[in-house]
Structure formats: structure tokens, C-alpha cells
Amino acid sequence: MIGYSFFEKTFDRIYAEENKKRIEHATLWLSLLGFVIHLVLIYAKKFALFAAPAQWGLLDDPISALYTPFSIILVYEIYLLVVYLPRSFTTSVSKQFEIISLILIRRIFGDFPKIDLSVEWFESSANVQLIYDLSGVLLVYFLIYQFNKSRDRLPKKELSPRLRRFVAAKKGVSVFLLPILLGTSVYSVIQWLKQFWGPTLGPLTDINAVFYNEFFTILILADVFILLLSFLYTERYSQLIRNTGFIICAILIRLSFSTVGLTNVVLIVSSVLFGLLILKIYQATEKLLVG
């Protein structure tokens, strides 16, 4: 049977600090390159250097070029989420909230070119969607700030041999999760790109629904697996409820990808708010136990 030390060594080798720095630098340069290429394609279309179907809406306005670097940054954030997975449920769910907030911000750059100033503001569904997304970003950003502030107040615990085995087990989950997510992302992007060259050119599937839907499904399964592992190392009711509550947060985010408009934003805000309330109640419970 593979020991815990194997997972720890494999994790440390794959997610070594020098590897993280390489990926960070590659993300920066790819973001810049992606932004320039997207901008060139937009102006190439504008000057009729090539013909693009109407469904390629992200080539209609220079502001849409910001969509590409944000997409690349999101891939890096997902990598960091896998890195942070062994730390704690609280740190992991905080990173999930940051990812969904970046997805919201990226969507705003896709909303701007759709704004219709020729009609009354609330007569256009695209204008209303922009208001929903801007309000959602502000609320989510504030709630994440409150969540991280509460998280930083949690007492730091020493790694007992029992807790160290649990962390090693989570590192094993993280090691297995990375290739699964990479494979899923490549497959999802290929399936999405096939729509450009399909026999019929219909509306493009939202890239969020294509990849992030699957991503959060896999993440939820990984979180449930870690939750089950935690039963071997803790029997504290407050911790189990907290961890289960954080899984509910991921499920709410996953559901948001199946909706549009106000419902989408409400589900995202509800996820972060629910996580914040769960953390606040957990902290209050811990104070009672200590007292």
C-alpha cells in the first residue's frame, strides 16, 4: 500500500515553489500575448481582413480583448486552487470564491459591447444584465473580504501526527485531481472550438457552461471525498458542519452555471454569503467550546 509519505513527496515535487513561479511567469506572458492576439483579430475583422460569423461576438469590440487575459488568469487560479486544496477547507473555499468573482468580472468585459444606448436603459436585457453583474461583483468582493477577515482570525493549530496524516491524504487527492482537471479542460475546449467548424453555425455554448460546469462538479466530488476522509481524523460536530457547509457553497456555484440573468448572480452571492455565515457560526461555536 502506498504510504502517506509518497503523496507528500509527490505533491512537494509537482507543486514545488520553483514550478509555481514558472507557471506564474508563463501565465503573465500568455495573458499579454493572448490580449495582443485578440486585439489584432478584432481590428483585422474591423478592417475586413477576414470574415467572421455573427456568433463570434467577442471580436466586435476592443474591450472584449480583455476577456482573453482574464481567461488565462482563471486557469492559473484553478491551478492555485488545486495547490491550496490540502491546506484547509476554509482556504480552499476562499479560493473558489475568488475564482467565481473573476468569472463574473470577465463576463462584464463581454457585457460592455452588448450595451444598447439607443433605447431606455432598462428596455435592453443586455443593459440590465450589466447592472446585475456589476452589483454581483461588488457584493461578492465585499463578502470575500469579510470571509477572509474571519478566516484570518481562526487559531493556528499545530500539526499533530493524526492531522499530518489527514493533510498527506489531501495532498494525494490534489495530486490525482490535477491531471483530471487538465484532461477535462482540454476536452471541454476542443468540444467548444468544434462549434466554429461544425456543419451548422448556431449560437456558441457559453464557455463557462462548457468547462467550469465540469470543473466544479469534479471539485465537489473531491471535496466530498476529503470530507469523508475527515471523519477518520475528527469527530467534532462543528468542523463537520462547517466542512459540509462549504461543499454546499461549491454546489451553489455549480448550479449558477446552469442559469442566466439575475438568478445566476443571486446563486453566486448566496454561495459566498452562506459560506461567510457558516464560518461565523463555526467561530462562535469554537469560542463556546474554549470558554
Task: Write a structural description.
This protein has 291 residues and is mainly alpha-helical. The protein has nine helices and no strands. It has one domain (4-290). Helices cover 75% and strands 0% of the residues. Helix 8 (237-256) packs antiparallel against helix 9. The chain starts with a helix and ends with a helix. The relative contact order is 0.11.
Structural class: mainly alpha
Supply the number of structural domains: 1
Q: Hey, roughly how much beta strand do the residues contain?
A: under 5%
Helix content: over 70%
Quick one: how many beta strands? Answer: 0
Number of helices: 9
Largest sheet descriptor: none
> Which stretches are low in confidence, meaning pLDDT under 50 for 5 or more residues running?
none
Average pLDDT for all residues? 83
Q: Estimate the global geometry from the Cα principal axes.
A: globular
Termini separation (Å)? Answer: 42 Å
Helix and strand sequence: HHHHHHHHH
Rg value: 21 Å
